[in-house]
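S1.2 Input.
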Amino acid sequence: MAEIDGPRLEPRRGAARQLVVFLHGYGADGNDLIEIGRAWQALLPDAAFVSPHAPERCMQAPVGRQWFSLTFRNPDERWLGVNKAAPVLEGFIDAELARRNLPPTALALVGFSQGTMMALHVGLRRAVAPAAIVGYSGMLVTPNDGPAEAIAKEIKSRPPVLLVHGDSDDLIPVQALFLSSQGLAQLEVPVEWHLSAGIGHGIDPEGLRHGCEFLAKRFRAVISA
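S1.3 Output.
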């Protein structure tokens, strides 16, 4: 199994009590998202942040990485891709939690685009639910883009999820937000969403604020549980 790694940020104060794992999009790498952690440290002072580089080189962006290839020739390639990449990501998450001596409930996953697909795929299948999942500009992946019921038997945990999407996204259309939200609700996963007006395939300051506040709230809920 391939091993992955990437840039890290230590907590603003003391030893880590939470772990936030950023999952970058197609053609980027871990450096693309790690600075979000620095912006979030004021509200998440006890969190450590890590942003692993995806395991494969991206042929469409040779200096970037990909969780899985995208040829757009196979209608099921996203489903095949998330399943292929999942064990590598699972191994990284488990090792990072163990390295910091943190329980699985101290985990949050934050993805962008292809990284959101990975965050939802892996997060919903962990034996112990993460504290939260935040997904920007992505989607819930199902076989042949079919109904969410097709993966119902695979779901092991139901962490709270926030989906954020730009209403002008021309790469992953905004309909993906509504379809994914509906699918998660059908799977009895608690889901919230935010629509960023005038934003394409990216993250605006308002979307970042919503994501940070969502994580802070969910981490507090885990601590008080």
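S1.4 Remarks. Strands lie at 8-9, 18-23, 47-50, 56-58, 61-66, 107-112, 132-136, 161-166, 191-196.
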